[in-house]
Amino acid sequence: DAKTTQPNSMESNEEEPVHLPCNHSTISGTDYIHWYRQLPSQGPEYVIHGLTSNVNNRMASLAIAEDRKSSTLILHRATLRDAAVYYCILWGRGSTLGRLYFGRGTQLTVWP
Amino acid sequence: DTEVTQTPKHLVMGMTNKKSLKCEQHMGHRAMYWYKQKAKKPPELMFVYSYEKLSINESVPSRFSPECPNSSLLNLHLHALQPEDSALYLCASSQDPGTRNNEQFFGPGTRLTVL
């Protein structure tokens, strides 16, 4: 499975935007980019996914570089509840039947 | 109902015990998964069930035995575990196992301690 690289940790103040980067230079044309997050003492939860175009939903926005070698998860106004580990995952041709391979993720700390 | 439930929340067992973890979803999803998560590490896939049949076993030791009695239920039977098997066991489900376009819904996990 294609590898993703994320910073180990990031910090933000409450109500400020947060941009979480992910590099995936070996991405193939059929790989979807998925983001999950895991709040303390909870199971992971789906955040957003995309293929080529930027995507928005009620939780976040996903900006995908034109060459698809990187992407950025954008939280428009961070809240304390957004403090979590954020995982960027590629799901593609080698990942059929639901194989989600989680990398180490980015620990996001939100300060009041 | 968009929830995956897992029971028990916590389990402590000895190395000679036999116990089972249970997972349930009522979203009509046809794929169900078991993951293992050690402290401060990402989740690792263990098993995938697709349409109630085991489709992926990620080389998991036989002391872990999955079972999918019906499309809503997933069990993980545990026998002769080792202390290093202590971890958070997560269950997940998704609508279609073969589609890269759908999300997985995770339960809260069972925190297992093996003494």
Largest sheet report of chain A: 5 strands, mixed
SS strand fraction of chain A:
35-45%
Q: What is the mean pLDDT of chain B?
A: 93
- Number of extended strands of chain A: 9
User: Hey, roughly how much beta strand do the residues of chain B contain?
Assistant: over 45%
Detail the poorly predicted runs of chain B.
none
The general outline of chain A is globular
Q: What spatial form of chain B do the alpha-carbon principal axes imply?
A: globular
Order of helices and strands of chain B: EEEEEEEEEEE
Structure, described:
- The complex is a heterodimer of chains A (112) and B (115).
- Chain A is mainly β and 112 residues long.
- Chain A has no helices and nine strands.
- Chain A has strands spanning 9-13, 18-23, 32-38, 45-50, 55-56, 61-64, 70-75, 84-91, 106-111.
- In chain A, strands 1-9-8-3-4 form a five-stranded mixed β-sheet, with no helix packed on it. A four-stranded antiparallel β-sheet of chain A has the order 2-7-6-5, with no helix packed on it.
- The termini of chain A are far apart.
- By secondary structure, chain B is mainly beta.
- In chain B, the strands form two sheets. In chain B, strands 2, 4, 5, 6, 9, 10 and 11 form a seven-stranded mixed β-sheet that branches. A four-stranded antiparallel β-sheet of chain B has the order 1-3-8-7, with no helix packed on it.
- At the A-B interface, strand 3, strand 4 and strand 8 of A face strand 5, strand 9 and strand 10 of B.
